[in-house]
Design brief:
With 82 residues, this protein is of the alpha+beta class. 34% of the residues lie in helices and 28% in strands. It is elongated, with a radius of gyration of 16 Å.
Length: 82
């Protein structure tokens, strides 16, 4: 059985997100009303090898997301394994 891991990385709510501000302004300028805050992040999808232990994969990818894939000072991440 093959599994996929998805890591969604977004700026922390307290961090100024220039890309999000630009997207929000562009949407308003184009007539898309009702848009609140916008946060631009990263999406990483990883195919896990057959037979990978889900618990080991979760621990390993959590460590990788915290140490390498995201900047924990200014970003939050969410890991999903399916």
């Amino acid at each position: 059985m093959f599994m996929k891991a998805r890591i969604i990385i977004t700026p922390k709510k307290a961090v100024v997100d220039p890309q999000g501000i630009t997207v929000r302004r562009a949407l308003a300028h184009m007539g898309y009303d009702g848009v609140g805050d916008v946060h631009v992040g990263k999406y990483i999808e990883i195919d896990l090898a057959a037979g990978t232990d889900p618990a080991v994969a979760e621990a390993t990818l959590n460590e990788a997301a915290h140490r390498f894939l995201s900047n924990p000072v200014i970003e939050d991440y969410r890991l999903e394994i399916q």
